[in-house]
Amino acid sequence: MLKDGDFYEETQTIEPTYSTDYEIERNKPMPNRIHGRIQHKISMLLGLKYENQFDFESEVTLDTQPKSSTPDICIYPKKTLRLKEIEAKATEMPLTTIEIQSPSQAPEALIEKAWELYFPAGVKSAWVIIPSTKAIRIILPDDQNFLYTHGEANDPATGISVPVEKVFEGIDW
User: What pTM, to 2 d.p., does this model score?
Assistant: First the structure.
């Protein structure tokens, strides 16, 4: 029985329901224009600054276990790709995954994905982009956790940085 000052909070896990082929195949919600703009901005900003060191690849399906996953952006060391060697699902894991939160997702779901799929597979850092707060969260497998809402978002695992304000430029409430 609850007494004055006590409160009851019911929590439940709600499994996402996917209705389109895109959502079923990638195990994530369909992106909107804000998602697309942020994905483009990050790829462009990183490419301009680091194109000689890294490759920035969009929508690569990774052969993670127990299920595959498709981050919005993967950061790989610079490498020539050979058509005859590339498989439908990448077995070579990226250094970094970047996930952009969709309106129907909780940021915690993307963080959980990093812990359950990406870090066990060897990914060195995971970025979660949160449009509603214009924030970039970078997490590392050793429990380091960085939240950037302005200035340079710095990834200690790769040495990569990106200006937060530029990522969200042109997006307002």
Answer: 0.81
Residue type, position 89, single letter: K
Amino acid occupying residue 168: F
pLDDT confidence of residue 9: 43
88, two tokens: 């439908």
76/107 Cα distance (integer angstroms): 23
Average pLDDT across each block of 10 residues of the chain; the chain has 173 residues. List them in order: 45 46 50 85 96 95 94 94 81 95 90 96 97 97 96 98 96 83
CB distance 25 to 59 below 8 Å: no
Nearest CA to 135 among 99, 96, 109, 95? Answer: 99
Residue 112 CA neighbour count, 13 Å, CB half: 6
Q: Are strands 54-58 and 73-77 parallel, antiparallel or unpaired?
A: antiparallel
Concatenating the DSSP letter of every residue in 93-162 gives: PPSEEEEE--TT--HHHHHHHIIIIIHHHT--EEEEEEGGGTEEEEE-TTS-EEEESSSEEE-TTT--EE
Q: How far apart are the C-alpha atoms of 123 and 56, rounded to whole Å?
A: 14
